[in-house]
Design goal:
The complex is a heterodimer of chains A (217) and B (303). By secondary structure, chain A is mainly alpha-helical. Chain A has 10 helices and 2 strands, in the order βααααααααβαα. In chain A, 66% of the residues lie in helices and 2% in strands. The two termini of chain A are 23 Å apart. With 303 residues, chain B is an alpha+beta fold. In chain B, the strands form 4 sheets. A 4-stranded mixed β-sheet of chain B has the order 9-2-11-10. In chain B, strands 1-5-6 form a 3-stranded antiparallel β-sheet, with no helix packed on it. A two-stranded antiparallel ribbon of chain B has the order 3-4. The termini of chain B are far apart. Classes of the chains: A mainly alpha (217), B alpha+beta (303).
């Protein structure tokens, strides 16, 4: 894919494909999972061809999501490591919240909010996978006791609701910060966007003449 | 198994509305299994297979009288044999007909996510409506007695129906019909409780001082009850739970957590919406572009 002149690459093509595969899986899991979670949402199972199909397909989508998210971890973990700037940024969060980012500490590629989403999912996805295996009755029921399955299904639903809330925050943040959606669909951002939201990242790219997403060298 | 007319339901799985209750002046039924009169002939098992057209594959002999070894999608009732010694060293052969207890407060129904896959009729019978079953196995987690079995072939869950199809037309369950010693009785719950009382008096007079009725209050009573000669120790009868109740994990998962989780998600969405209409979008300003260009100017830009 070619990027417009004078822009910076925020997310490489492989990253975007990986992200949207994960996103697709997450949405399908959310719809099928909620249909089996609350009676008022059971109608969502019609999207999957009925209750039996929903029950059958949900864990397989979960397997794809696990692999897909592992790919995101490989690509993103380094830029999501906690740094000292993050604490200062969080102190100034009240200004961030009302779009007054002047004077807010400069940040590298990701802000603490994005790091929170990344690490929350990095924790929740494996938890959902492991507890999901324990309640994947047709293949794994005989490997655990019924009591273990009871605990597993409770943890699975707790982790799922947490992940959904984290996902809502993630989606809203992308809508809120204009330019973010394009960064993940078409891959590029304007220098002004980089300056405004991720100035340290922008400086590191400019200093190394890198087109993004990571500084050279 | 089969679907009776909907007015007969008093409980329906995964349903947030109250089922039609006007016609619930129906007598509660119960099956009474008098363990002290059972001779272990398995006529009840045969009758169950016969009436319900169930045929389990032939298994292997594993050194026990239990045959087949466990309940399955094709085995809805099973005699479980236990050799038990009392504290004086006397051997007793305990035989218990295992199967669905038809709890007044059914854990399977509470756990089931598929609307109408598990119902309770006004007479107390808990029934699985196969066409609504999605095969998730939540009923297995809800049940305090380890009864439901999900078929790996058709992905439907199965258990004793208390012959709801027979009871619905005024017949007694097949196992009751077949029992040669009168160890299995069927009637109204009140009558069965009275009958059990007489049996317990009799057993006590014969030296079984702890004889009693098994109608566990932890599940609000059951529509299958046992007369036990050692009612103080139900678990000696092949692991009959001493104090069965719906697991606290299941009650939390299917109780207040459900609305709280949905409310949490709704609040997150509302929070976002109200942030949008108060703070609004965060857009790049012209001065950001200018500052960025200034920084990039002296250096080479990406072509």
């Amino acid at each position: 894919m070619s990027y417009p002149r004078g822009t910076l690459i925020r997310h490489a093509t492989v990253t975007r494909v990986n992200h949207w595969l994960t996103g697709l899986c997450f949405v399908l899991l959310l719809l099928s999972g909620l249909s089996m979670f609350h009676p008022m949402l059971f109608f969502l199972s019609n999207l999957f061809g009925g209750g039996q199909w929903t029950r059958a397909v949900h864990p397989w989508i979960g397997c794809v999501l696990l692999v897909s998210y592992a790919g995101l971890i490989v690509q993103f973990w380094r830029d999501n490591l906690w740094s000292r700037d993050d604490i200062a940024w969080m102190r100034a969060f009240d200004r961030v919240l009302v779009n007054r980012e002047d004077g807010v500490p400069e940040l590298a590629r990701f802000n603490p909010g994005q790091k929170f989403v990344f690490w929350a999912m990095a924790l929740l996805v494996p938890v959902l996978f492991l507890t999901g295996l324990a309640i994947w009755a047709i293949y794994f029921a005989s490997y655990t006791s019924i009591e273990v399955q009871r605990v597993a299904v409770l943890i699975h639903s707790l982790a799922a609701a947490t992940a959904i809330i984290v996902w809502i925050v993630h989606v809203y943040a992308a809508i809120w910060i204009k330019g973010s959606v394009r960064a993940m669909t078409q891959g590029w951002v304007t220098p002004g966007w980089a300056w405004r939201h991720h100035r340290k990242w922008f400086r590191s790219l400019a200093a190394t003449h890198s087109p993004g997403p990571r500084p050279r060298g | 198994m089969s679907d009776l007319q909907s007015q007969d339901y008093i409980r329906r799985s995964a349903t947030t509305l109250t089922p039609p209750v006007a016609r619930d002046h129906e007598q509660q039924v119960a099956k009474l299994i008098d363990v002290s009169r059972c001779i272990g002939c398995k006529a009840c098992q045969s009758a169950c297979m016969e009436w319900n057209n169930l045929r389990q594959d032939i298994g292997y002999f594993e050194g026990t009288y239990d045959n087949p070894l466990d309940l399955s999608p094709e085995v809805w009732t099973l005699m479980r044999f236990t050799e038990w010694e009392d504290d004086k060293g006397n051997l007793e052969w305990l035989i218990r007909k295992d199967g669905c207890m038809h709890c007044e407060d059914p854990g399977c129904l509470k756990a089931c996510p598929a609307p109408g896959a598990i119902v309770q009729y006004a007479n107390g019978i808990v029934d699985f409506i196969s066409e609504n079953c999605i095969g998730c196995g939540y009923c297995v987690k809800g049940c305090p007695f380890d009864i439901p079995r999900v078929s790996p072939v058709d992905h439907k869950s199965y258990k004793c129906t208390l012959c709801s199809d027979r009871v619905g037309v005024g017949l007694e369950p097949a196992c009751v019909k077949a029992c040669p010693t009168g160890a299995i009785m069927f009637g109204s719950k009140a009558d069965m409780t009275n009958w059990a009382g007489d049996r317990i008096v009799d057993l006590k007079s014969r030296g079984f001082e702890h004889a009693g009725l098994y109608d566990p209050p932890g599940v609000s009573g059951t529509h299958v009850m046992y007369v036990l000669h050692h009612a103080d120790k139900p678990s000696i009868y092949a692991g009959l739970p001493d104090q069965p109740h719906i697991s606290a994990f299941v009650r939390l998962w299917k109780g207040w957590y459900k609305p709280v989780a949905l409310a949490g998600m709704a609040l997150a969405v509302l929070g976002g919406f109200f942030h949008w209409i108060t703070a609004g979008p965060n857009e790049v300003q012209p001065e950001d572009d200018t500052a960025a260009q200034t920084l990039m100017q002296p250096k080479e830009r990406r072509p």
